[in-house]
Amino acid sequence: MITKELLEILACPLCKTDVRLEDDRIVCTKCGRRYPIRDDIPVMLIDEAELSEEPKKEN
């Protein structure tokens, strides 16, 4: 389980922006990349990330 404190200090390694927990993935709030969590450890490697189906629209 990812703690709230850990989630607050994590950032997308590509965009350097905040991330959120979504199901069993950590998702970048800017680019939408989805980083896996394995054995309760976030794998924050760009090569391991999945791209979201729809890119986020900027306002």
Describe the structure.
The protein has one helix at residues 4-9, and strands spanning 19-22, 25-28, 34-38, 41-42. With 59 residues, it is of the alpha+beta class. It has a single domain (4-48), classed as Single Sheet (N-terminal domain of TfIIb). It is globular.
Write a concise synopsis of the structure shown:
With 59 residues, the protein is α+β, with helices and mostly antiparallel strands. It has 1 helix and 4 strands.
Instruction: Give the terminus-to-terminus CA distance.
Output: 33 Å
Biggest sheet features: 4 strands, antiparallel
Percent of sequence in beta strands: 25-35%
The structural domain count equals: 1
Helix-strand topology string: HEEEE
Indicate the overall shape. globular
Number of helices: 1
Order of strands across the widest beta sheet? 1-2-3-4
CATH topology: N-terminal domain of TfIIb
Corresponding CATH architecture: Single Sheet
How big is the Rg?
11 Å
CATH class: Mainly Beta
Task: Indicate the percent of residues in helices.
Answer: 10-25%
- From the helix content, strand content and strand pairing, which structural class follows? alpha+beta
Q: Averaging pLDDT over every residue, what do you get?
A: 90
Low-confidence stretches: none
Total beta strands: 4
